[in-house]
Amino acid sequence: MQMKFPASFMKTNKFQIWVVSELYYPEETSTGYFLTKIAEGLTENFPVSALCSQPTYSGRGRRAPVDERFNGVNIHRCWSSVLNKDFFPARIINILTISLSIFISSFRQFKRHDLVFVVTNPPLLPFTVLAASTLRKARCCLIVHDVYPEVLAATKVLKPNSLFIGAIGWLTCQLYQRMAAIVVLGRDMAAVVQKKLNFLGPPVEIIPNWGDGDFVKPRDRNTHPLLEKLGISGKFVVQFSGNIGRTHGIEQILECAEQLRAFPLIHFLFIGFGGKKGWLTQQLSRRSFPNVTLMDYRPRAELPLSLTACDIGIISFVKGMVGVSVPSRMYNVMAAGKPIIAVAEAESELACVVREEGIGWVVPPGDIDALKAAIIEAQRDPVRLDQMGQRARKAAETKYSFERVISAYKELVGRILEKGD
After folding, report:
1. pLDDT tens for residues 9-29?
2. 3-state SS of the chain: helix, strand, coil percent to 5?
3. How confident is residue 7, by pLDDT bands cut at 50, 70 and 90?
4. Do 305 and 319 meet the contact criterion of CB atoms below 8 Å apart?
5. Residue 78: beta bridge partners?
6. What is the pLDDT at residue 29?
């Protein structure tokens, strides 16, 4: 595409795009991976730099260079604490140090006419980056991965009607109004954000995440090495893979597994880590679940193997997550050619995609009987399941590809630059 630049940029010739995130390469968790790839994709048309912290998630314990050029992006890693994020007080300390350190670095490095993309996590980060952008007269765009304070209420971190929720909601509205543009991952999220803005303020762009279709591909599950290693190659495998976090309805899946003991061919496979993994591990050790296997987090390099080690994928949310979060794992499950059981409210982006593409079942959060029925129906109709898997793969290749997503980001940058200051 041909980009148009404002006259002010042509005079200064110092325009730069900044991608700001706690997580960035070499982090492999979803936020770090997606922000890294977005930055690298934009280098085809623009000069791009990244501001981030030292690895704190999957790469925790690894010391990366403070300054590094990788795949066309100039990376600057700010100092911060790298305490264990699963211990809540330690996570708060990390958030404070990361946000403050990135603010100082942003203020030093941002320039007039620069365009800054910042993600919503950790929740203090976009406020500090917006402050630095405003002071340095750079334009700031928000990439919304989670909507605050709704996610805090849905996960019961804060009470829905508390003063903290009200204060955070007001601050979030102020944040949104001061952005040059807001990127959201789904239609339900766009509706929530636009309501917060009272349908005024900056443009809200829907740009989803994507599936790695060139990397994650369907494979024959009948000769699958991981299923054979686990001793479940002859089972009908329902897989939950990825972050086992507070927003995910793990309890409903485990209760379903409890009630499906009478179906010995149905087996549940959990792969991942997160805030609820400790609870899940404890439950599996206390109670006998011969139909459940739990595996540790697998590095991204193993996704082609791990995501195809099942007959159907399951993505489960707690109630109240409509418009609050869109699961990036959905697109790689589709790339793997697997149907999806979406435990989600009907208006959610996840449920909409599953219905529109005809690639699975939608089950309300908390409805154990509906979840059981969906799994049994899937297990008993392999022909329909195969057709769903083929449609899932096709959608990942056409609608949810990296090429399509990065093109949308480039077009957004072009529109912002055309507006000038």
Report:
1. 443 456 899 999 999 999 988
2. 45, 20, 40
3. very low
4. no
5. 53
6. 84
Q: How many CB atoms lie within 10 A of CB 252?
A: 23
φ, ψ for residue 196, nearest 5 deg: -60, -35
β-strand partners of 240:
270
Record the pTM. Answer: 0.92
Q: Report the alpha-carbon distance of residue 148 to residue 20 in Å, rounded.
A: 18
Placement of tokens 């999806």 in the chain:
340
Place of tokens 């762009």: 205
Return d(Cα 279, Cα 244) in angstroms, integer.
Answer: 10
Structure tokens at 71: 């795949």
User: Under 8 Å CB-to-CB from 273, ≥6 apart: which residues?
Assistant: 243, 244, 296, 297
Among 49, 73, 76, which Cα is nearest to 138's?
Answer: 49
Which among 349, 351, 354 is positioned nearest to 364, based on CA atoms?
A: 351
Q: What is the pLDDT of residue 349?
A: 98
DSSP string, 253-268: HHHHHHHTTT-TTEEE
pLDDT digits 0-9 by tens, 73-96: 999 999 888 776 666 677 788 889
How far is residue 186's CA from residue 199's CA, in Å, rounded to a whole number?
17
Q: Which residues touch 194 (CB under 8 Å, ≥6 apart)?
A: 204
Contact 8, 421 (CB under 8 A): yes
Q: What is the largest CA-CA distance in the chain?
A: 73
Domains plus CATH for the chain? Answer: 7-210+401-419 (3.40.50.2000), 221-398 (3.40.50.2000)
pLDDT tens sequence across 230-278? 999 999 999 999 999 999 999 999 999 999 999 999 999 999 988 899 9
